[in-house]
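Q&A log
Question type: sequence-to-structure
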Amino acid sequence: MPPLFPSPISWTADGGLRILDQTLLPEDERYLDLHTIEEVAEAIRALRVRGAPLIGIAAAMAVAMEAGKQGSGDAGKDGLAWVRGACQLLGATRPTAVNLQWALDRMTRSAQTAEQQGEDLATALIAEANAIWDEDRAMCRRIGELGAALISDGGTVATICNAGALATGGIGTALAPIYLLHEKGVPVHVLVPETRPLLQGSRLTAWELSRSGVAVTLIGDGMIASRLRRGDVRAVLVGADRIAANGDVANKVGTYGLALAARAHNIPFYVAAPSSTVDLSTAHGSSIPIEERAAGELTGWRGHTSAPTGIQVWNPAFDVTPAELVTAIVTDRGISRPGDIALSIMPAHLSL
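Response status: OK
Response body:
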């Protein structure tokens, strides 16, 4: 983990979940203890815990938490039924991020195996949730190592939203190469747009980078093309919430515009994400469901109104960047051209 960086999620002593409430950053570093499936679902929906890999981890831990709380003993059909119900409730919270459903599917399969083998359900689910967390930590490190090779001399790179330690179980995806280069003493400067909605670039990415000692400059979303035109940005590194089989990428809204600006200025555009973010069942980006957030997240900020009352609002949380704008995709399986992404992650999906 980056130096002095708090973990966004952990187990509590009594088997619950402790999360860093990311809606309160950077002013208030407050932790919440959650003890029910409903509380975790609310935390995911409200973005108290967020980031595609991290919400998958949180959801898996929530299912395991509930199993431990029920004292299920030997798994049976009733136990499997409530696991499926819990997964359905959690899976409906954020439709765009494929890691959420991926993690929940793993928990369901673990419950099925426990039932078939007569194993204790709670023990099996806790082990599976911890495995998902551990694997994500290792995947982040591997993504960081591969991505660092693309920008080994450091310099200025641009990102968007938050794809760092706050969004994962480890050191992040798009920010992982930055942290590893920083550890080695390679000078890296990160350009961070504020990121609408909810300012996750300014509130979260700028906070965790600066806290970790990485040089960072904050800009407004509408400034990105002008800033890239200056010619000193050597690469763009972004995360992903879902990657379609053809290499189209769903990420925080504004990523598409950033990709267009990068192409116009001949700057490499790299996507960094775990192989679990690749969704082979989605052929192309137009089939990815795009979550829309509440109008109030755009018309005001923490109780202060910034738009006329009753104004019509379109507030998508994500957009889709076409594969042709992506220079390469970095996963824990390797570095791929968008058109080859299905082949590069196929073994990971077949093994799950």
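Response note: Residues 121-150 form the longest helix (30 residues).
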